[in-house]
Amino acid sequence: MKIIDKYILKKFLSSFLLVMALLLPIAIAIDVSEKIDRFLRNADLTVTEIIKDYYVSFIIIYGNTFMPLALFIAVIFFTSKLAGNTEIIAIHSAKISFTRFLKPYFVGATIITIFALVMNHFVVPKSNKIFDKFNKDYLTTKKIDANYLTNINLQLGPNDYIFFKSYTVDRNIGYNFSYEKYDGINLKYKLSSDNIHYNKKDSTFKLINFKKRFIYKKRDSIVSGSRLDTVFSFTPKDLINVAYMAKDMNSIKLNEYIKQSKQRGVSNLNTYKVELHKRTSLPIASYILTFIAVALSSRKKRGGMGVNLAIGISLMFLYVFFLKIGEVLGAGADANPLFMVWLPNLIFGAIALYLYLKNAKN
Fold first, then answer.
1. Distance in angstroms (rounded) separating the CA atoms of residues 241 and 165
2. Is there a domain that residue 245 lies in?
3. pTM assigned to the model
4. Does residue 111 sit in the same domain as residue 217?
C-alpha cells in the first residue's frame, strides 16, 4: 500500500470514528432527557444496571443504525477537505486515475462492512434481547400479554396439521385441540381433545377427553377416552409467532426458525425474512454510499464542503426513506421481501455507477 493510500485510509477511518463519537453522545443525551423520569420511578434500579443493561445495548443498537449515516458524512467531510486543499488535483496530476484513487476508500468500506455484518448478524440481536427486556421490565407502562394465545394453527409436516382454540403459555395448557392427517386433500385421521397439557420433563402431551377418528373408504372408526399420553413433533415455543422475536435471534437461529416455520405452514414469515435480509443489505450499502460520497465531493465546488454535505445528507435521508418503505412493503403477505429490502441498494447502486462513470471519464 502506497503512502497516499495509507494517508486516505487513515483519514477515512478517523473521520468515521469522529462522526460516530459525535452522534452517539447526542443520541444518549436526548434519550436520557426523555427517560430520566421513568428511571427515577423505579427505586430498585441502580445506575450500574441502567448503564450495563440499557445504555451499553443502546450504544450497540443505535451505533449500528447510525453507521451508514456516519460513514457517508465522514467520507464527504474529509474528501471535501482534500478537494478544498487541492490535494486531489495533485493526486490526479501524478496520473492516478479516479478508479485507482478509490482503492483506499474501498479498503476502508470493506473494513466497516465486515464489522457491520458481524454486528448485524450476531451482536445486535443479543443486545436487542437485553434492551427489550429492560424496556419491558422498567420503562413500558402498557404490558403486552404474550402469555395467552388464540386461534393457533400449525403445519407439522407435508400432511400433518394441528389447531388450538387457545393456549396458555405459562401453564402449558391448550384448549379445543385437534390434530389432522391428510392424504393429499383427503382427511385420513383426526385426534381431538378438550384440553392438552405439555410435560416438560419427558416432552409428552396429555390429552383430556380425547377422540380418535380413523377415516376409511367405506366407513369411519371412532375411539374415545378420558386420557391419552402421546408425543408430537412440536413444542409450545413453536406456537409463539411474535414479530419482535426476529430482532432477538441471531441470523443462524433466525434462518432455522424461518425454514422450520415454512415447513409447518406459518402463513406469513415476511417480517422475519425482511429482518434477515436487512442484516446483509444495510452493511453492503457502505460500499454504495462510500462511492457516492467520493464522487460528490472529490471535485472542488463553489460553496465548498457545505454544498457537498447538504447534497449528501439529502441523499442519505432519501436512502433511509426508501429503506423504510421497502421494509414495510416487504413485510406484506404478497410481497417479495428479498427484492424490497435490496431495492434501495439497487436504486442507489445505479446512482453510484452513474457518478463513477461520470468521474472516471474526466
1. 15
2. no
3. 0.77
4. no
